[in-house]
Write a structure and sequence with these properties.
Belongs to the LysR transcriptional regulatory family. GO terms for molecular function: DNA-binding transcription factor activity; sequence-specific DNA binding. Keywords: DNA-binding, Transcription, Transcription regulation. This protein is an alpha+beta fold. The chain folds into three domains: 3-98, Winged helix-like DNA-binding domain superfamily/Winged helix DNA-binding domain (Arc Repressor Mutant, subunit A), CATH 1.10.10; 100-170 and 273-299, 3-Layer(aba) Sandwich (D-Maltodextrin-Binding Protein, domain 2), CATH 3.40.190.10; 171-270, Periplasmic binding protein-like II (D-Maltodextrin-Binding Protein, domain 2, 3-Layer(aba) Sandwich), CATH 3.40.190.10. Helix content is 45%, strand content 16%. It is built from twelve helices and ten strands. The protein has helices at residues 3-13, 16-28, 31-38, 42-56, 72-99, 109-126, 178-182, 190-193, 204-212, 231-239, 253-257, 287-299, and strands spanning 61-64, 67-70, 102-107, 131-136, 150-155, 162-168, 171-175, 245-247, 269-270, 274-280. A five-stranded mixed beta sheet has the order 4-3-5-10-6, with helices on one face. Strand 1 and strand 2 form a beta hairpin. Helix 2 (16-28) packs across helix 3 (31-38) and helix 3 (31-38) packs across helix 4 (42-56).
Amino acid sequence: MDQESSSMKISKQFPLNALRVFESAARHMSFTKAGEELGLTQTAVSYQIKLLEDTLGEPLFLRRPRQVSLTEAGERLAPKIAEAFTIMTDAVAGLKETAEGTLVIHSTATFAARWLARHLGTFQLQNPGMAVRLETSQEIIDFGKTEADVAIRTGRGDWPGLRSHFLVKSHFTPMLSPDLAATIGGVHKPQDLLKLRLIDPGDPWWRIWFAAAGMPDVDLSGRPSTKFGAQAVEAAAAVAGQGVAILRPEFYTDDVLLGRLIQPLPILAHDGSDYWLAYPESRRNSRKIRAFRDFLLTTIQSFRD
């Protein structure tokens, strides 16, 4: 007998709907609660149980006023049916995970360009059955309205309904091309920066950094302002000699080694906002989210809850 014929025979011999009703009623020891769980009337529950009993040829429940209990046959059957439905539920969940085997990562453009782009290949080698789609935006997404499994975002990690893991500290400092620095004989003190064009002087990071450098009253008004929208783009402009950008230096170590950027001063500033991995608390046990979380744990030394 082929598998399809065998499956058809089993489905006719054992009404699956009745088995589902029996499992719920046996777990709750109540036809009423089983009906509430499955969206059935108590009469419909009784009918399905009777149908199963007729199919098996023996009673499964003892009916008493306002109370039911399992017969000996019901006691033997209940754990096996419960196990069978658990296996089916796990199988469907596993199939759904496979069907949804694409990990959708939402990230800031800078973290995507300066870190994720360099490491996602390794993640996929370690998880060959999982595809990855990377979306970038400076906006903080709403997981309920955006197709995303996880987000790399900046902030304090205290978003309601989300589980957050600290990734890296987001401190910042001015960086520029060595050729631009040479036009004023080098940058040796914070005041020297004011001789050069600052990329996006309206960025709050500039005032925070100058305050950390002992210049809280610096006046940046009236300077030409160009907004690039992402730190990675500002860095590209700085490499091209277009001005001084304020950047997270760890993202640009390659540019420093290649002589395209310099960090002229050791002063670092911080606005209290860092990089975090975030995802809905309700999805913390998702296989693909666990895989990505574990990858970051082994790749980023500062990763923590």
